[in-house]
Amino acid sequence: FSLRIMNTRQQSKLIYSWYGKPLNSDRKLRTFQYKGILITSESTKTEACIQLGDFILVEGVNADQPYVAQLMDLYENGAQDKRAVVQWFCRLEEIPQNKRKLLKREISAQEVFFDQVLGYDTDIAAETIIKSIMVLPLHLGEELPIITLNKEQTFYVRQSWDGKCFKVLSPDTFSKLKEANKKRGVITNSSKAFIPSDILTPVKREMGSVVRSATKSKNHDMEIESKHSTSKSSLARERHSQRVANSDIKTPTARKKLELNSPTRSKGRLLGCEVLGLLDDDCDSIAPLEPSATKRKVKFTSEILGSPPKIPCSNDKSRSTPETAEERQRFSETMQFSPYTKVRDFSEKDKNLHEKDDNISLVGYQKRSSQIPVLTPRSRRTCAQKTSALIAEQISMLDQEDFQSDSDSSYSSSSEEEEDDDMPCTPEKKTKSSRIFSTPKSSRKSAVHTPAKTPKKTPLQGTPRTPRTPRNATPEIPRRIQAAQEPASVLEEARLRLHVSAIPESLPCREEEFQDIYNFVESKLIDGTGGCMYISGVPGTGKTATVHEVIRCLQQAAEDEELPPFQFVEINGMKLTDPHQAYVQILEFLTGQKVTAAHAAVLLAKLFSTPGPKRKTTVLVVDELDLLWTRKQNVMYNLFDWPTQKHSKLIILAIANTMDLPERIMMNRVASRLGLTRMSFQPYTYKQLQQIVSSRLKGVKAFEEDAVQLVSRKVAALSGDARRCLDICRRATEICEFARQNRTPEIVRMAHVTEAIDEMFSSPYVNAIRNASLHEQIFLKAILAEFRRAGVEEATVQQIYHHFVALCRVEGLQSPTVSEIMAICSRLGACRLLLVEATNKYLHMRVRLNLSQDDVLYALREE
Amino acid sequence: MRPTTRPSSARAPASLREPRIQPMKPSAVSKRKLKESSAESAESISQVQKILRERFCHHCAAGKLFGMEQQYRHLLELLKRTTVHGESNSALIIGPRGSGKTTLLNHVLKDLREMKQVRENLLEVHLNGKAPVQSDVQKGKKLCKAGKGGKFLVGEKDNCQLFMRNPFLSGLLQTNDKVALKEITRQLQLENVVGDKVFGSFAENLAFLLEALRKGDRTSSCPILFVLDEFDLFVHHKNQTLLYNLFDISQSAQTPVTVIGLTCRQDILELLEKRVKSRFSHRQIYLMNSFDFKQYIKIFKKQLSLPDEFPDESFAQKWNNNVQHLSEDKTVQDVLQKLFHHTKDLRSLHLLLMLAGSAVTVHHPLLTAADLQEASRQHSTDCKANIVHGLSVLEICLIIAMKHLNEVYDGEPFNFQMVYNEFQKFIQRKAHSMYNFEKPVVMKAFEHLLQLELVQPLERPSVRAQREYLLMKLLLDSSQIMEALQVYPNCPTDVKQWAASSLSWL
């Protein structure tokens, strides 16, 4: 594991260079088009060539989920940037959750969709290309070809996705994709003829990276062992950072899965399937020689899978021996035979076969292959013949080539890779896909490398999504046994509706603000740019509610295809334990990774500063912004700096209470980045509050008009906090319920509302003083007397005590002891009627009133 | 009071007896003596003592409610709505110490459980928490009491009852949000979700809990009652994160929660941060001890009289008649009046009755007015003056000297040298009975006063400062000194005279 990390570091530097001479150039635009690009890893001296029409992986937001695309054009623009034009394919994870249902079938992780969504940037930087892969077009009814190896590198496309619905690939597209496969083979051949580097690549690579080859061979040894998931994930990352095709590292897992899934599979049968796969693929093309040879090798490993593990290993290692060649010959013979029998079988069994068979078994294959003859015009028989010829050819090729590799394991991997790089579109691909002999589930498993998965990316149906780490465990409050009672009376109904948590259909009185925010975000979304907006307002003025409403509307619009899709992330300063946790939460929302705050900051900065070709715009709502304040303000700085970056596509809606927060607490550079798009939510006026309450109570006659008005006026005068208003109304319904004696329905009247208001707003002090004991009251009087005497609003207990004794004498009471006085003092202090010092000062403890003298006088005078 | 049925609660008073053993001692001794004479009477007496002890020490769980019917109804309705309708709420119970906040809440919860049990048996299935272990609560309480300001991390009660989960947090135990969150997770029994893995960080814990609570909704999730004892201490947590989140949940469509805070601070709302305040529903239930003296007498009677289920009926009859007589007695009423004027807090009434009740023995089976008077005297003694009683004459002389200094310099601080000089003046001019002690001896006496905290230095003594010149303050009032001298045994007359006037030697 550590070795690999070292590798990652070593190989992190990649050089992209053009392959061949410019095809044509545009003088005016000063662009040069090329037919291919070479990716050279400096440290390992490996090269990979990617050419037009190849299918490629492009760096995505998440290291584990690179995008799939087809390379359409390569050019160098005036600024000498290497650019590539691509046709996107989208993975299931990229399709919104709610749309996935439209598919009505299970999608394997290897399936991608021909992307017809408009608005994705198809012009990408060539440096984001990771490596080439295979994408095979399939007809809708077709089963996934079986691929035992290299699952990572092979994808299928059955349908296209235009952002709204899935469509079957048009014949045009289908043939184009097929064409690409075909063409690719040719190109590879030709390229091989021109530059031997393609063939030499494996050798070079091996020389370059001794360490790696060691790892690799180890991998091969481990073929039958299960691999630890963490190492898998690290592998995934490694690959990502390397940008080097490193395909077979993952195969062990796939193989292991395979064995687990179909332990009873016999070798012979497997061979049959394989050949069928081959037949299928080869039916319409002549396979190129070299790549097919390498591929064939891989095929062998897969064949071996069914047999005891020891043998394949040895087989792998002693590949260059003539004995193995013989063996192959034998296999190919079997292959020749099997198709016929199979086909026969199928025609009989066809009817009995189940529609769905997600366990990969022979049945699945049979079904598939039995269907294929119907779909493809060519006859099985000719295909089979062709294949057998082809295989013979390949074997001879292979024997010639074998001298090139010292270590078989590394050779096989590199050849595989080579194959990926150079010829993803040849019909061989299908054979290859048939090699990946695994269930959709297992393939998914192998694709899911890291425990850190985006929450939005739900796994395929049927994939058991067990929490990988305890951290991901999602806790749940137990359900209640008894269903919650529904409101029975008008008052209960009203109370339910008046609860702050009840979400009204519309937000009255915030239409303007709503529109402003909506327009802001909408325009940014359409432009595909970033921006900040600062929203301020005292608590309870509907800031967060309005923003949520805006987001809801925008999401609706995005769903209806009126707007480009976007991601919505919300963080709340109050719900963070530390400002830096903001990074962690944002990153978790966006990519599902769980990392430390410092690392998250780095990743986010990278994410927002580099051009993510397919990245959606992110709408980030930062609630309670002021709590993200740190001494250096780097959290706020970063938050507001990202939207200003060219490629960030980040829209920030920052919410806080104070209007002048940017001026007050932010440094100039932070405030400047926040910009001047500000909005302030004014406290609600009484009319607005009235409207809010009555809109919630629409259709429920629970309140007198005047009562609502009274509440609204009272609240508007105090704070304009809508929550308060609703709470008072809710309390009033309770009081009304208490008050009504008989069961007659009653509505909330002025008296109830007044009582509720008094309950909530009356100062508790006066009541507390009135209910205090006699000596406590005398003590307060003594304090007042002492204050008056000294002219200072502070006195020691000793001073007060003297007054106290005098007052007691006047009242004719026995004066209490000093201990009792101290007790009284601390009691009043605990209620915070008084502010007192620490008690250890005893008589010299200083005392202050926590309310005005007038209040005390008023409270005492009443009696 | 009826005997408790739960074994756990029967154990509780036993564990509680320890701190209260001091006042009980005489009765315990006499009880032993009496075993020979009259077993039956002794039995009754011990029964009485047990009942009274439970009533006065164990006031939270079993105490009766006095003068808070309205508050009771309010709280009951509030919690009922939470359980029945799944309505989220928040409320504060505010009242001075000893006004019965916890008693009220416990009563409401108890009644609510009973009501539910009667009405809906189905809900009982939901009882997935362990039954509340009474002794645990008591332990917690005791620690609370013993260590105000002390920081304990003791498991609090897990009050998971049939329908409602009930995290009980105390500001004295959960001293910061991190501890509080852990405690909530534990009490909600969510920690099993995470396995035995300890939470990585505070942030994760918070996210975890919020996630858990966000998932629920009004109609299907089990309502949660959060009880925050010593609510004012939670206010001082950083950013008031816990309160914000709890109140935020109570104001949003998530798992129904009710947050009940108990506090004695009247200014609690001013302490809440504006956002937290806005989210708080502003329901305040005030407990004010708003009864008058007549009710106080009634409470006194009720607290002292024996229940009908008392085994020895004739004794109960006699006891209750006696209590009735006592309540009409003038001296008893004076005693009670004095206490009532002093404080309306029922806890001090309990303490008074506890002191008086400990005088009950087999020889002295019924309470008398004198017992109450004695208890009242004990209850209201001045502790500092009591200390003065035990001082030596030299120490008394020093205190008198300080008193004179205070009078002369109007409360300005003094040092040992000044006190010594004052004392020397007295010795040389006036004292005939006093022996002229050497300075180190006087110094020793002075230090003793310092240890008794009758004298307090103004600042911490530094290494370099000479002890003689450290500035001090006297922590006694002159009236206290004079009173103490009145009762001081064998006080020399010249000292008494000197105490009365600093100029008496002229």
TrEMBL record, chain A:
One GO CC term on file: nuclear origin of replication recognition complex
Alphabetized UniProt keyword annotations: ATP-binding, DNA replication, DNA-binding, Magnesium, Metal-binding, Nucleotide-binding, Nucleus, Phosphoprotein
Any single Pfam family the record assigns to this protein: BAH
Listed GO biological process terms: DNA replication initiation; mitotic DNA replication checkpoint signaling
Source organism superkingdom: Eukaryota
GO molecular-function term, one example from the UniProt record: ATP hydrolysis activity
Region of interest called Disordered, as start-end residue ranges on this chain: 212-263, 305-338, 357-382, 396-478
Residue intervals of the BAH domain: 48-172
Location(s), subcellular: Nucleus
InterPro entries: AAA+_ATPase (IPR003593), AAA_lid_10 (IPR041083), ATPase_AAA_core (IPR003959), BAH_dom (IPR001025), BAH_sf (IPR043151), Cdc6_C (IPR015163), ORC1/CDC6 (IPR050311), P-loop_NTPase (IPR027417)
Biased composition (Basic and acidic residues): 218-228, 316-331
Keyword match Oxidoreductase: no
Described purpose of this protein according to its UniProt entry: Component of the origin recognition complex (ORC) that binds origins of replication. DNA-binding is ATP-dependent, however specific DNA sequences that define origins of replication have not been identified so far. ORC is required to assemble the pre-replication complex necessary to initiate DNA replication.
Assembly description: ORC is composed of six subunits.
Family statement drawn from the similarity comment of this UniProt entry: Belongs to the ORC1 family.
Stated name of the protein: Origin recognition complex subunit 1
Species in which this protein is naturally found: Chloebia gouldiae
TrEMBL record, chain B:
Organism: Chloebia gouldiae
One Gene Ontology CC term in the entry: nuclear origin of replication recognition complex
Gene3D superfamilies for this protein: P-loop containing nucleotide triphosphate hydrolases
Keyword Nucleus applies: yes
GO molecular function per UniProt: DNA replication origin binding
Top-level taxon of the source organism: Eukaryota
Regions annotated as coiled coil: none
Keywords annotated in UniProt: DNA replication, DNA-binding, Nucleus
Protein name: Origin recognition complex subunit 4
AAA+ ATPase domain span: 87-289
Main location (coarse class): nucleus
InterPro entries: AAA+_ATPase (IPR003593), AAA_16 (IPR041664), ORC4 (IPR016527), ORC4_C (IPR032705), P-loop_NTPase (IPR027417)
GO terms of biological process kind: DNA replication initiation
Family: Belongs to the ORC4 family.
Function in brief: Component of the origin recognition complex (ORC) that binds origins of replication.
Disordered: region residues: 1-43
Keyword DNA-binding: yes
Subunit structure, as described in the record: Component of ORC, a complex composed of at least 6 subunits: ORC1, ORC2, ORC3, ORC4, ORC5 and ORC6. ORC is regulated in a cell-cycle dependent manner. It is sequentially assembled at the exit from anaphase of mitosis and disassembled as cells enter S phase. Interacts with DBF4. Interacts with POLQ.
Compartments reported by the entry: Nucleus
